[in-house]
Amino acid sequence: MLKKSSLVLWGAALFIAWNGLLLLFLWSRPPSPASPGEGDRLTAEVIRLAQDAESELEKQKELLRQIHRYSGLWGQRRRHGVRITPKPPSPPSPAPPRLTDPAGAVLPVLVMACDRSTVRRCLDKLLRYRPSAQRFPVIVSQDCGHAETARVIASYGDAVTHIRQPDLGDIPVPAEHRKFQGYYKIARHYRWALGQVFRTFRYRAAIVVEDDLEVAPDFFEYFQATFPLLLADRSLWCVSAWNDNGKEQMVDVGQAELLYRTDFFPGLGWLLLAELWDELEPKWPRAFWDDWMRQPEQRRDRSCIRPEVSRTMTFGRKGVSHGQFFDQYLKFIKLNDRFVPFTQLDLSYLKKEEYERSFLPKVYAAPEVRVEELQGNRRRDLGAVRLQYSGRDSFKAFAKALGLMDDLKSGVPRAGYRGIVSFVYRGRRVYLAPPSDWTGYDPSWS
Fold first, then answer.
1. pLDDT bracket for residue 40 (50, 70, 90)
2. 26, 61, 264, 276: which has the highest count of C-beta atoms within 10 A?
3. 346 catalytically annotated
């Protein structure tokens, strides 16, 4: 029988030897030359290795504690002649939650923060409305190193996980892009933060929101209900909480449960799968990531789900875009205020085949009207109507005349599906649509 002191010495030697081998392994990893696109990935890898090392250290500490405990028990047995059976070690902690059943999936909310201390408004609503901290953990990823914003985030304690983008330096950019340095930093931050969620935390999916977004009461219900659709329909690549044409007078608030497919990537509160990040990460852009997402090479004829009435609204006029679109459009977006029990609704109509079987005939069966008739509020007896455009210029002219966002990205109109934009004008449904023999988007319409 080993003496107690010998046992402790043996345990300490094992602890030191194991961690010496671990450090030797980390130091001996062959370096690889870092290309400009590899920096963030290398940072994420170092963080992952450090976390693995920390996990191993914790295991070895627990082993030492057990050795001390057992040696004490054996000492008691020797002194009192009592047979004591040591308690078996506790099982290892479970890995981060993984998807087993879509109905009970863990969907983390990744909040992208920088230097807005008003992130409190965003976090307050997220924490107020989330139905479960276990199912919807909140991860705040902060760039910029802004101290006041960091203090605000820290004030939430264990209610959120606060991670910090480590590389705060300027990014070398072409001379003509110096004024766009902020967009380069945003793209870098997104790449790092999404890498943390999917590579370090190993989640199956994530909801991404910016620090200047306020969420609706049914925000979590909406994503919980649409997540199975995203899994099942390979023609979908995201679910968004945002309607680009969601100004109050242009939506039907009485149909807050109405959802659409859209070929336009909306962002502003969106759900993606880890598989999509596997696809996008190797080619992630250095800047302007959202417009890059809207290019045909990334979209690949896939669609997103979007609501009639937005489940997010933005309150952040300050930003790298200097308020572009904010005063004209964004500040007027209607935030849904009525809880819709989406998980109790049949959303199968959003699957591609069913959607096109119902939505397209409804659009092209609607009577065609002229823009002057809409503006003059004539032919009200027709109900839902269709306004047909024939090219880029006519689309932009009609959109501007009716108060829609008129910009196109790679030929795709905001909120559009197969070129069709559905909205409400003076209380009636209008479909701004191309001819029924539409054959696809023209990327030159940009």
1. very low
2. 264
3. no
The residue written with tokens 């959003």 in the block is: 350
| pTM score, whole prediction | 0.77
Catalytic residue selected from 290, 291, 406, 442: 290
Q: Give the residue-averaged pLDDT of 214-227.
A: 98
Looking at residue 73, what is its pLDDT? 43
* d(C-alpha 161, C-alpha 164), whole Å: 10
pLDDT at 65: 52
